[in-house]
């Protein structure tokens, strides 16, 4: 039998891991996973971990889900992949039809890519190219929000505002204008979130008054800015922003890569504001965490601006090799079937009260601040005994991470923000265990 250590040694001699200072592995080695089942990951020695972060916000219906497995296996025997330029296939057509039907009204065309960041590149290029085709080439800039995250390719970093990702590459990036975030945590003493919303919208109006003529689009992460530390805002911000984008004639790009597919309590976050963006970006949960896929939905009017004789050079020539991969589309179709079959949105909503009850002891803990929940995203910030944030250098979140691992939970904090983005299939028992271990992790982190 191979041990965990065998795999760790082999890993560390060849791999370079994402989002990692590899030297950290000298003290905290990567965990080799032999298999997954339901909400659990198992290492090579039988130790298990509850996947409380859905393996980076992807997994919706557990690991090795028999229903999804079966559908991918069936597809595998039919067609593994085919070029999507000049050719088409059943899963991509069916998936496109179903996404058009499920997403807010007016999004009638689907363009595919093979991961989230590439999807953002598609959205930015599509918006820019639309204005160029509309004889408005001077509209070539973007507006993004403070603390935004849209992926890590260079175009996506241009609309990002988290310095650990953007700073080093600044010379390579064409930065967007950054507008204040409507993050409810910015409410000052005596203020409500509605005040923050109103202030963020009037700041956006001021920016648009100055820059709309040069602006292609405003890009936002609807309802929750996940990578920034699960920062949440009101649906009213989105409806206000939609109105401003209409008034100033700029596109609204909704990046629902993290929040789509039920995460915020509705299938798509935009539904809660009753808005239709000009471009909607989907990835992550689209295949329930099985295979890389991104879908960008847009309006017939954007699509029509590219539709012309070949000589006009209006076509959108963007492409990725694995665009619309049939196996990924089959996984996505199985995912949508599970949403319907198990009435997942409704069932998740019914579990809200149970989740709130379980997080009450956490919310009351002196070393926890800002416990917050939007649908199936629950987050809280570690604070010291005086209720102040710990110095970043103390890395208290890392202590929480270690404690949780020792107690069979994969909880991967963002700095000192602990969060749960679990599969939708956690049992009541697993939810209780998650809350208990998180409480222990808070205490371990507070002890230092
Ligand atoms: C993860 C994420 C992306 C990037 O997706 P990748 O597949 O990791 O490239 C973009 N936007 C948001 C909001 C995300 O959470």
TrEMBL record:
It comes from the Bacteria. It catalyses: (8S)-8-amino-7-oxononanoate + S-adenosyl-L-methionine = S-adenosyl-4-methylsulfanyl-2-oxobutanoate + (7R,8S)-7,8-diammoniononanoate. GO terms for molecular function: adenosylmethionine-8-amino-7-oxononanoate transaminase activity; pyridoxal phosphate binding. The modification N6-(pyridoxal phosphate)lysine is found at residue 284. It is an enzyme of class 2 (transferase). Its EC number is 2.6.1.62. The keyword S-adenosyl-L-methionine applies. Keywords: Aminotransferase, Biotin biosynthesis, Cytoplasm, Pyridoxal phosphate, S-adenosyl-L-methionine, Transferase. Pyridoxal 5'-phosphate binds at residues 116-117, 255, 320-321. Pfam families: Aminotran_3. Pathway: Cofactor biosynthesis; biotin biosynthesis; 7,8-diaminononanoate from 8-amino-7-oxononanoate (SAM route): step 1/1. The record marks 19 as: Participates in the substrate recognition with KAPA and in a stacking interaction with the adenine ring of SAM. It is found in: Cytoplasm. Its cofactor is pyridoxal 5'-phosphate. Substrate binds at residues 56, 149, 284, 319, 412. One of its GO terms (biological process) is biotin biosynthetic process. GO terms for cellular component: cytoplasm. Belongs to the class-III pyridoxal-phosphate-dependent aminotransferase family. BioA subfamily. PANTHER family: ADENOSYLMETHIONINE-8-AMINO-7-OXONONANOATE AMINOTRANSFERASE. NCBIfam families: bioA, PRK05964.1. Catalyzes the transfer of the alpha-amino group from S-adenosyl-L-methionine (SAM) to 7-keto-8-aminopelargonic acid (KAPA) to form 7,8-diaminopelargonic acid (DAPA). It is the only aminotransferase known to utilize SAM as an amino donor. Homodimer. This is Adenosylmethionine-8-amino-7-oxononanoate aminotransferase. It comes from Halothiobacillus diazotrophicus.
